[in-house]
Amino acid sequence: LKLGVLISGRGSNLQSLMNAAAAPDFPATVALVLSNKADAAGLERARSAGIPALALPHKDYADKPAFEQAMTRALEDAGVQLVCLAGFMRLLSPWFVDHWRDRLINIHPSLLPAFPGIDTHQRALDAGVRFHGCTVHYVRSEVDSGPIVAQAAVPVQSDDTADTLSARVLAAEHELYPLAVRLIAEGRVTVEGDRAVLACPLP
Ligand code: GRF
Q1: Is the pTM of this model over 0.90?
Q2: 112 and 143 in contact (C-beta within 8 Å)?
């Protein structure tokens, strides 16, 4: 399965996908990396792995439709079959979400549907939850919603700060995103309405 990865910054989840895809038995390859920021560190990570990486600064486009059409054209030219959002910080329009429906996934740093949006780690601490985590889900128009493919939970410790908690969640993200992509690439995930159904139990 050919992946297109959309980033805006650091790209550590992109790195985890590239690392996984480097294994000969992994059922997906990263065909293209796109960033809406020219200085995203993830672009360099992709280029040093020999993966095509393009900056499409959203500010260079007249409006959101023009920006999203440019991204779609680049993804389709590269033969991308599954778009993976990995720290991509632009809201996507219903047009883009519909165009890529059930071929567009995101990783979010919380156990959705808890804590959609930003600052999830501080909000989890403020809420006093004992577990936090991350979710890979198919993208729907409403922010951080859509059929859930996979989740990983991490414990919240009493002395956690947003930084220590986010580091623990990030380590889980780096395991979870390649796992979710593998499940999809192996055809083990089907979307049925608002839910993603797994064809067989997780390993
Ligand atoms: C991750 O926490 C991801 O869950 C969220 O944005 C962050 C991106 O980090 N959507 P990175 O760029 O992958 O390092």
Answers
A1: yes
A2: no
